[in-house]
């Protein structure tokens, strides 16, 4: 790759959304991965640096290591107040955010701009479906969701406890559904936010509509269902859709409104795609999302990816059942995975699912850079790598990243004695090291720490030999 030419990488990502950058240490693999993201953004007419993309929750940077596991990458079970909760790992988290972007691409109007990664998903029942179908039809026509109780009381600004006291006075302390009803009322009045999604339930396990909360709570005094929120109807299904496989708590609650904390945007994307073949999500109209995995070769790939390994090369096609949540999962088409590695993988699972691009040491990055006008960094790098290749082979060459930040003779001195020589010691024996850096830096079988004045002269002689 020539300096600052990322066109080839962009073409590779368009060919496959899974890319591994591999090569010698110091060839700028991590830096290049971030730059690829920035350059890829220009396709969508956005001039953003990587940090800005991260702030938009569209990029996530992680590193694999020996202790990195499925629990970190996919999902894990934890106990909170004696209740088991499933937490999303890095891949699921970025996939959910990318799925939200896909969903938003099919929503018309400005309301889609209010939906974000913090938006919640709510279950809502609109009247008793068998006996009050008119309530449901009226809500559809008026583009609103409604709830009953306390017909003549506006609840604006009322807390949960205040609503509880008001309903308790009206209905009595022994009302069996009191806490459930108060929870539903408070959810509509206080907890829902603009941009939240509401799933309209037809039965305890099926939904018939998906709406987006469009406005604040308001009250129409005297109506049977006076407490309201305006919504924009996003998806209306022709027949009820069973979502019990996405939320196994559904059967356990008869509350009119409650948060569906098990259902995420990845689930909603799948539900919509499964039940409306006319909806097409074009990558040209949606923003890309990126997962950067540094040192992917340092992790136990099959253990970390688990069942999701089969999804990597089949976006929006293959699905799997997740180990802990038992939910179906697929990877969205707008998610790109860019990884770095010190070596090309021999593992057939990754070879088939990723494409690989080798980065080599690029002396051209050091062109016309000198230390104290006497020491050319490009010549120093070439000399070091020539000697290394003769003794240890090309795979041990140093990349330009080792040299790019050397500005003074003190920088070079510290690099030479405290980075370069220890690196050589980890790769070979003392006799090979002597052949690579020369006798000047040795006294018998020990490294000589020259003064900085003598060191500069020794480096100049080393380059010229």
**How many beta strands in the DSSP annotation?**
20
Q: How would you classify the helix and strand content by structural class?
A: alpha/beta
Helix content: 25-40%
How many discrete structural domains? 3
| Shape by Cα distribution | elongated
Strand content: 15-25%
Biggest sheet: strands, sense, closure? 7 strands, mixed
What is the alpha-carbon Rg in Å? Answer: 30 Å
In CATH terms, what is the architecture of the largest domain?
A: Roll
**Euclidean distance between termini CA atoms:** 30 Å
Structural write-up:
The two termini are 30 Å apart. It contains 15 helices and 20 strands. Strand 17 and strand 18 form a beta hairpin. The chain is an alpha/beta fold. The strands form six sheets. Strands 5, 6, 7, 8, 9, 10 and 11 form a seven-stranded mixed sheet that branches. The protein has a five-stranded parallel sheet with strand order 2-12-15-1-16. Strands 3-4 form a two-stranded antiparallel ribbon. It has three domains: 7-76 and 284-359, Rossmann fold, CATH 3.40.50; 107-271, Roll (ph1033 like fold); 363-464, no CATH class.
Features:
3 domains; 465 residues; ph1033 like fold; 15 helices; Rossmann fold
Spell out the blueprint of helices and strands.
Layout: H1 7-15, E1 18-23, H2 29-41, H3 50-55, E2 59-63, H4 70-73, E3 75-80, E4 83-88, H5 90-105, E5 121-124, H6 133-142, E6 144-147, H7 160-171, H8 178-191, E7 197-203, E8 206-213, E9 218-219, E10 227-242, E11 257-259, H9 265-275, E12 289-294, H10 301-305, E13 320-321, E14 328-329, E15 335-341, H11 348-353, E16 355-359, E17 370-371, E18 375-376, H12 377-391, H13 409-427, H14 430-437, E19 442-443, E20 446-447, H15 452-464
Parallel strand pairs: 1-15, 1-16, 2-12, 5-7, 12-15
Antiparallel strand pairs: 3-4, 5-11, 6-10, 7-8, 8-10, 9-10, 13-14, 17-18, 19-20
Helix pairs in contact: 5-9, 7-8, 12-14
